[in-house]
Amino acid sequence: MTDLALFLFTTLIDFVLLLLVVRVFSSRWVSEYNQINKAIGLLTDRLLSTLGKSTDPQRLAIISILLALMVEFFSGLILFGMNCIKSPSVFELFALSALSILDLVLTIFFFSIILHAIFSWLIPNQHSSLSDFIRQLVVPVLNPIRKNLPVPAGLDFSPFIAIVLIQSISLFISGNITSKLLLDGIVCANFQHLV
């Protein structure tokens, strides 16, 4: 696979995965009247309808997660199959797919919390579809930290603590589990592009 084809394929897969994962959380926490939430719903409804029609948010979340796992698994199967001499086993590829989805969730919340903090500092009382979407997406993550944290002089340190926790989990996953346990003995030509 050429570098351009690999780039286009992985970009498309990453975009689909991003939409599916954000749909899981936005359908539960973000107002159904938010324009960005509506756009994500429209973009993912066709994909989700292939696995069954439902209006139940819990069922849609499960279908979104399963579809994201399937997309990640089969794209990994294609990429590893085309670029590797020794590929991971089916179990290793499934575990790698699940960890990749978890890492995507952590990345989404990492950048959403940073954007939320920037919006709250620069434009604290402005409301737009984007700022409301991000605020509604991260508040359920920040609230448990806020409950257990004193607020000295009106400063909210919950975004900082959430970012440190997210990065710690992400580093643990990528540093320990993925590279040491799952990727041992795999031989690939373009290994950096695949993982």
What do you see in this structure?
- The protein is mostly helical.
- It has seven helices and two strands; from the N terminus they run H-H-H-E-H-H-H-E-H.
- The chain has a two-stranded antiparallel ribbon with strand order 1-2.
- It starts with a helix and ends with a helix.
- Residues 191-195 have low confidence and may be disordered.
Q: What distinguishing features does this structure have?
A:
two-stranded antiparallel ribbon, mainly alpha, 195 residues, disordered C terminus, globular, 77% helix
Give the end-to-end Cα distance, rounded to a whole number of Å: 16 Å
Shape: globular
Content-based structural category: mainly alpha
Q: What is the gyration radius calculated from CA atoms?
A: 19 Å
| H/E element sequence | HHHEHHHEH
State the strand order across the main sheet: 1-2
Helical element count?
Answer: 7
Low-confidence stretches: 191-195
Number of strands: 2
Q: What fraction of residues sit in β-strands? A: under 5%
Largest sheet: 2 strands, antiparallel
Tell me the count of domains.
Answer: 1
Helix content percent band: over 70%
Task: Write down the overall mean pLDDT.
Answer: 84
